[in-house]
Design brief:
By secondary structure, this protein is α+β, with helices and mostly antiparallel strands. The protein contains five helices and six strands. Helix 1 (about 5-10) packs across helix 4 and helix 4 runs antiparallel to helix 5. The protein is globular, with a radius of gyration of 18 Å.
């Protein structure tokens, strides 16, 4: 039996392809495209409030998943750093194809695991200091990440 990634790759291989040239905006924060893009090749940067939060060049990376899942506008800008190709799906792919939903759920779960790990590392680095804006920011982030009963006690 094929694993989730292999099944998703087979599904994505059937989708049309779009190319974005270096410097072109793939998704703009605040817009609603209704599309889900899967990186085939190239490199993009993800910007939140003009701050780079990620550079992505791994084939299979999915963009637009939060917008599709929540039926809301995109939450960040995605810009091609070099010429990039994407498989293009309608956001409803997640409703129609269980393997697509499973693949995206796996990606999101891994992001949460990484965010939690990095959050704890940062919190440990700043432990013992006096309350500050950074401490308050950590508190807010901890509240967000602890939804569902998770605890970040170290």
């Amino acid at each position: 039996m094929m694993d989730v990634k292999s099944q998703f790759d087979s599904l994505v291989a059937l989708l049309p392809v779009a190319t974005y040239r270096a410097g072109e905006t793939v998704f703009a924060n605040g817009t609603k495209s209704g599309r889900l893009l899967v990186l085939k090749k190239g490199k993009v940067v993800v910007l939140k409030d003009a701050v780079e939060v990620a550079r992505v060049e791994q084939p299979g990376a999915v963009f637009g998943e939060l917008s599709a899942l929540l039926d809301q506008p995109h939450t960040a800008d995605v810009r091609a750093v070099e010429d990039s190709q994407f498989s293009v799906a309608d956001g409803e792919l997640l409703d129609k194809e269980p393997i697509a939903m499973r693949y995206v759920a796996n990606i999101l779960a891994l992001r949460i695991i990484d965010a939690n790990k990095n959050f704890v590392e940062l919190k440990n680095q700043f432990k013992g200091g006096s309350p500050s804006a950074l401490s308050r920011a950590f508190g807010k982030l901890e509240a967000i990440l602890s939804v569902g009963g998770a605890s970040f006690e170290t």
